[in-house]
Amino acid sequence: MSAIDWKTLLDAATEVAAKAYAPYSNYTVGAAAYADDGRVLVGCNIENSSLGLTLCGECGLISSLYATGGGRLTAFLCVHGDGELVTPCGRCRQLLLEHGGPDLPILSPQGEVTLADLLPQHWLDYVPPERATNPHPDSRNRHPGLVPGSPDEVRPGGEPT
Ligand SMILES: [Zn+2]
């Protein structure tokens, strides 16, 4: 049994889902997460008439993470409507990875999983070192001695390559 208080996040996500702006699909989403200092962060989806410019709830949540002091995500869930658990979309899995890492606990419709379960072989492993001027703590670029693809390399949440 997890020590994470998922009920608090579920209530927060359900509450913020009711504030979503989703006049085109009527598919309201609320997202909630804990930051490493215990803050509860929330976000809701904001649709746009162009549809392509629609923002997922996770976008607002991560903006809130930085707007309220920064840090790292330590647990996450998202809901539709009145509290039906859903999973983050592909783009948002990548967003969550950057700010919570592959071990981020996520309460999914199938139970508690990690982000690595939802996003195996993620992009963070493949950021070229020359682009990593400020290497992310979960990037393999923090291990400059590792040779990509070498037998010694083990990716977070994955099998040895
Ligand atoms: Zn999304």
End-to-end distance, in Å? 31 Å
**Count of alpha/pi helices:** 4
- Determine the strand fraction and express it as a percent band: 15-25%
Order of helices and strands: HEEHEEHEEH
- The parts where pLDDT drops under 50 for at least 5 residues are 140-161
In a few lines, what is going on in this structure?
With about 160 residues, this protein is α+β, with helices and mostly antiparallel strands.
Describe this protein's structure.
- By secondary structure, this protein is of the alpha+beta class.
- It folds into two domains: 6-119, Cytidine Deaminase, domain 2, CATH 3.40.140; 123-161, no CATH class.
- It is built from four helices and six strands.
- The protein has helices spanning 6-17, 57-67, 90-100, 115-118, and strands at residues 29-35, 40-44, 73-80, 84-86, 105-108, 111-114.
- Strand 5 (105-108) and strand 6 form a beta hairpin.
- The longest helix has 12 residues, at 6-17.
- 32% of the residues are buried.
- Mean pLDDT is 85; it is low at 140-161.
- The chain binds zinc ion.
- Residues 56, 58, 88-89, 91-92 line the site of zinc ion.
Topology:
Layout: H1 6-17, E1 29-35, E2 40-44, H2 57-67, E3 73-80, E4 84-86, H3 90-100, E5 105-108, E6 111-114, H4 115-118
Bound molecules: zinc ion.
The site of zinc ion (ZN) has 6 residues, from α3.
